[in-house]
Write a structure and sequence with these properties.
Strand order of the largest sheet: 1-5-6-12-11-8-7
Number of helices: 12
Distance between the termini: 83 Å
Radius of gyration: 44 Å
Structural class: alpha+beta
Number of strands: 12
Bound molecules: 3,4-dihydroxyphenylalanine
Strand content: 15-25%
Amino acid sequence: MPYTVPKLTDFSTTALDSAVRELVSALEEESKAVRSEAEWKIFHDRWTARKNGIRTQIGELWLNAAPKEAKREVGRRVNSIIEQIETTVKDTDDRRKNLEILKKARAAGIDAQIDQARRALELSERLDVTLPGIRRPIGAEHPVIKTMNEMIGVFRNLGYSVEEGPEIETDFYNFEALNFPPNHPARDTQDTLFIAGQESKPLRDRLLLRTHTSPVQIRTMQKMKPPVRVVCPGKVHRNDALDATHSPIFHQIEGLAVDTNITFCDLKGTLDHAMKAMFGSSVKTRFYPSFFPFTEPSADVQISCIFCDGKGVRDGAPCRNCKASGWIELLGCGMVDPNVYGFVDYDASKVSGFAFGMGVERIAILKYGVDDIQLFFQGDVRFLEQFG
Ligand code: DAH
């Protein structure tokens, strides 16, 4: 049964209080039941309509009907009821609005959450310009990248440009065009990591992780006609177990110069200069016969030991860094094998050139006196910040 305003005959405090209690509880109950705008309109009119709303009715049925001596008490209660009706009607409207927003947000699901997060973010981003700033520490260049850039700088000054190639290579670029015939034992020295599932392709198209930066020589010569002078820095991969001097991922810098009349003297002069620029002008170089399929003749380059000045003895004891030999092996090089020109459409009877390849970590180890190659890959800030 919906609430109706009773006619009052008993104006005692107890009777008044009970009438007020009954009205207020009806007000609250009806407010709770409101769920939509339409329901709220009905609720609003029923309680506050000027003509016949409950608010008006209590004025007439309670206040006007009260005997003179009860007027004050009745008036006080009627006023407070009117106030309560007004706030309840307004609160009910707010509540049902919020309810509708919530309903919409639930329907919109994730969008609502994003909005809420965005609002929270905006609040938290308000800036207090009176607070002291947060100083961001400047990062340090990684020692491997630093060494790489230094070496590239040396060759840039000699007029070399920089070329890069992919880390996932084909057998053709990593081996075949570099004069490693299929099944040639020289391939064994490269500890190659092959990409799985390539068996259905012809050998030359099979993918692998490049084991050296030498394939960039081929890519460069396919792209450019001589004269060519490039250095090719990059990451290479080998199936090596890690220890203090080996890592399955490391970096190399490749070099290639092809032109007319390039001789072994040019190779020697260039690398001697580069080693002096990297390790100091007192460093000597020595070229030692070696073998690489893509160079003929080939050589390993050694530098005089930078720890014992090439003496093989340090502080009265055999130098550990050069195993007392006075020399440290640093890189491979040679004159480009004419067979290689056949793969890139260069005329081997007209051009000649040299190539070289060096491990960046190895150079960094020597230059900065690092005793474990793993330190370069562990990301330990205490190690890295020393190069800042
Ligand atoms: N690619 C060789 C390696 O990783 C290094 C090398 C040797 C590069 C001689 C050259 C070179 O360009 O001429 O073992």
